[in-house]
TrEMBL record, chains A, B, C, D:
Gene3D superfamilies: 3.40.1190.20, putative 5-dehydro-2- deoxygluconokinase. This is 5-dehydro-2-deoxygluconokinase. GO terms for biological process: inositol catabolic process. HAMAP family: IolC (MF_01668). PANTHER family: 5-DEHYDRO-2-DEOXYGLUCONOKINASE, HEXOKINASE FAMILY MEMBER. It catalyses: 5-dehydro-2-deoxy-D-gluconate + ATP = 6-phospho-5-dehydro-2-deoxy-D-gluconate + ADP + H(+). It comes from Alteribacillus persepolensis.
Amino acid sequence: MNISLAADKEFDVIAVGRACVDLNAVEYNRPMEETMTFKKYVGGSPANIAIGSSKLGLKAGFIGKIPDDQHGRFIEQYMNGQGIDTSSMVVDTEGRKTGLTFTEILSPEECSILMYREEAADLYLEPAEVHEDYIKRTKLLLISGTALAQSPSREAALKAVHLAKKNGIKVVFELDYRPYTWKSAEETAVYYSLVAEKADIVVGTREEYDVMEHRLGKGENQATVDYLFQHEPELVVIKHGVDGSYAYTRSGETYRGRAYKTKVLKTFGAGDSYASAFLYALVCGKDIETALKYGSASASIVVSKHSSSEAMPAVEEIEALIEENNTIKS
Amino acid sequence: MNISLAADKEFDVIAVGRACVDLNAVEYNRPMEETMTFKKYVGGSPANIAIGSSKLGLKAGFIGKIPDDQHGRFIEQYMNGQGIDTSSMVVDTEGRKTGLTFTEILSPEECSILMYREEAADLYLEPAEVHEDYIKRTKLLLISGTALAQSPSREAALKAVHLAKKNGIKVVFELDYRPYTWKSAEETAVYYSLVAEKADIVVGTREEYDVMEHRLGKGENQATVDYLFQHEPELVVIKHGVDGSYAYTRSGETYRGRAYKTKVLKTFGAGDSYASAFLYALVCGKDIETALKYGSASASIVVSKHSSSEAMPAVEEIEALIEENNTIKS
Amino acid sequence: MNISLAADKEFDVIAVGRACVDLNAVEYNRPMEETMTFKKYVGGSPANIAIGSSKLGLKAGFIGKIPDDQHGRFIEQYMNGQGIDTSSMVVDTEGRKTGLTFTEILSPEECSILMYREEAADLYLEPAEVHEDYIKRTKLLLISGTALAQSPSREAALKAVHLAKKNGIKVVFELDYRPYTWKSAEETAVYYSLVAEKADIVVGTREEYDVMEHRLGKGENQATVDYLFQHEPELVVIKHGVDGSYAYTRSGETYRGRAYKTKVLKTFGAGDSYASAFLYALVCGKDIETALKYGSASASIVVSKHSSSEAMPAVEEIEALIEENNTIKS
Amino acid sequence: MNISLAADKEFDVIAVGRACVDLNAVEYNRPMEETMTFKKYVGGSPANIAIGSSKLGLKAGFIGKIPDDQHGRFIEQYMNGQGIDTSSMVVDTEGRKTGLTFTEILSPEECSILMYREEAADLYLEPAEVHEDYIKRTKLLLISGTALAQSPSREAALKAVHLAKKNGIKVVFELDYRPYTWKSAEETAVYYSLVAEKADIVVGTREEYDVMEHRLGKGENQATVDYLFQHEPELVVIKHGVDGSYAYTRSGETYRGRAYKTKVLKTFGAGDSYASAFLYALVCGKDIETALKYGSASASIVVSKHSSSEAMPAVEEIEALIEENNTIKS
């Protein structure tokens, strides 16, 4: 099955939400207490997806709020340099800050992050700063779950979804669950189900769908898709880590994608690179089975490198890895 | 046209949201500065609707949060005494307060209110305090717009709507717009349209629908119903003050109800008494045209009296007024 | 001993802090749940002291913040009508509210209050709204402990004390402890000791001094005055309820005042009427022993009446009661 | 003149307030947007002064709050490793963060900082976490002005001053004015004058004293010391940048210290290194004139190096620089 998208749009994808700064440990395989140097990258799930998509050749735009300081200007300059349209990035005037993520790489399997999200500018995007004219210009609108974590960013994201649906623009919901900024699991479930019911494509890990369903144990994929297909979604992707990912369509098909083996440096950035390449494949008109391969290959490349944004692969790298694995398999 | 409701339910209506205290001027037709005595009543739109419905003979329940103080206990005791099931009213444990509304009656045409809504307990109802088992027991779930004004009451109301829809319970959305507790008109429009799209019956004034549509000037009823009937609603009531009210059905019918003349003491409470009697008529299986008459008659009785809750009329009073007006007209 | 005050000042006393609205139960000797009518009075300790002083013939001024609403205007009009200079009462422009105190009179011995202090305008007096020119015009500056409970009112009160000391104006500190608005007992102790050390006259109950000293059990008066006389105070009044009150001077004298018997209606307002009459006596040049009698007599008159502010007695009433008791005693 | 200090104390100095993380630009002489790597150091004025003092051989302790995360543990480990007693550093349990300071070195003359101070753990030190027993063990208690910027750290610092004065411990007030966390200049002036009046030794720049006096233009040193010597201070140090510093004593002496020439890398850390060496000299019983030299020499060494904490000099370096300058001068 292929997903049909509007043909005559200027942008392939417009992402909504946070664009932040990652401070990655230069000395790694040790506790962060012993890391003395940090390298700066643009970060944040929707920013990473916009960067990854742009690197693959999609035309991407971004709706978000950045601070009026050195980190804010760095983000805007970097994304602009990557070919992303930043005309809808709003500069905060209230002294808010860029969200920061310090990464700790204890070992390839044990990574953790230390987030600075207090008064982060991205969470202060106002609904009045989201414009119908801009949203009408894209094939896909990508909403990151974290944009729903606090007001007024929450209302800005809800308004973007409302305007997209009103104008027949397909909505992609990347669950991107970060417990840090949410008040309670109940609250997350309320907004995750609200937006998932209205989205056309939903992408997340099994654990993130359990959060959406406000479930303590691990849910069944079938129950999740039965619920979502009563509403707007036509494609639901559920990721199971090293066990690969599954795509379900409203028309009843199920596809499975394998995870690609790689030498892992750290686990950050896997989801964002997956989403970039998966959406790239859909926009190029590839079938869902192929899109799953693009997603997995892209993720496996990023986890072998130091950053999440700068490490986003080119199409050739992805296709080479797929080809290589096809050969191995046979 | 009649609205079909589930037959086998314990409650006719469960209202969600605020139950507060009104302090009505004992000496009126003067500025509040010169009013020295105030009389205490239960107030708040959904509480008034529950009281009005109960007085008319419906079995009503209430989901809300009241403080652990003398005003909170007064509310619970009064509503319980009116036959309302208060088993789902939660007592706040964080020292919050009962919302207060001081009323100023300068003249029958010039009324104003002075609201105390800071840290009002009703706005702190948590989603975890809304239970599926309770909501399953009613024919109608009534959501008041003010419950959406702040978190966590907002999420509690959204969860109640989600649970009602999941269980096939009809949702009535009374727009009940009070600018006081909202941060911006944009924010109100986001949540009003979100809930109105999911409701089965929507009731409000023309001005309140303009708020929902985030419109500066006055909108057209036809545009409003064209929009809402693309979503879940099957019945939309739009009130135009002394020019009467209109009911629109998804199947294309339009009904008009006249306003009844009365000796007005004050304008408060008209909307709540309208909603109580309108819903009463629907539950009793009366047609929409008749339901509009019940609403108008009930409203005209309440505006001639001192309170909003205690003044809620009995069926006989409503029917006598309708009869009297039918006679006059002929 | 007499307290020497500047002779050439326009005001006898300027009070700083809250001016609020009391809503007193019209039907009493019952729980508030059963009280249906409330009578409105101006309230708040420093407002009551200004009103009481003014009724006794002192020239009083007031520094405080009132809301831009009907209750705010009522307060200003009432205090102005009592002869108080309200030129330094600032009108809030941020939508804050008048603090409210609902009184419950279960019996003459069991009284309680229900306070509304969230976003109360009086706590938002800014230090920039306290002016040296105004403070220079008074003999006594009266600080109420509650003004220290929150910023920015706290800084406004500290600035007023600073300016008074700088200009040789005597500072009276009325401890007026209301736990409601304080975050912790530790915090109260920090500011109470800070201001008490700088004040010239300190007035409070034994329990309030225990709060100042951050003491769990009941402290000894001698320890309290030993501590305070190492700093600025020259006169310390410690009230022991029905056991009367004690005044201690820096020069080592101790005076005891008896409590006057009366038919108690409620306990509210006793402290404010005590302070008004005590300060009146000092300003009139009476000795401390006589001032204690004025305080006690005034308190006993107010507790026999319905309000705290309107019930403030005239000089003749106070003197008649003192005379009557002198006669009885002999 | 020498300052007499208690002889029999375990600690020479206990500092109160913030201990944070500095992230210093590794690539400098460029805008921060172009700096891609940052090096981590312990920072924050009172932490730097404790580190500097400890390096010079004083026995230092610290009262402050650090987060329960990797940065918090780094701070505690580093300071402990420098010989500072960290037994009174409290670990925050509410998820607060370490304050961060990114430094931008455009040129030796143009340096700026980007501070992260939202929900910084140090500002949440509670008065209940400051203990009399600990404060009794030191010769000097050092209060940093920034600790007064917000509650509850403000009350913790006020309590520390209260306990020091009660026990005859000398209080050093380092004005350390950082506009970022203060609400208004009026508020700063209130608390700066409050603590400066109670301190024994006050140290700051001319500009900081202007903040304390809530002055728009530049004040005169003589007016400042005339005011402060009416209260508790016995020694007041006023720094005038490259024009050197002045020390005034209550007994009427004035001393001037020259600034030492150096090759400046950045301007950060000058004040903290000055204070460390000045206090070291006082504790060692050196006269004030010599102490001013120690301060200047220490400052000039730190501004030539990359960090503020790790660059703190040893006694030999300071004395060598003083000696060298003495020789040059002659």
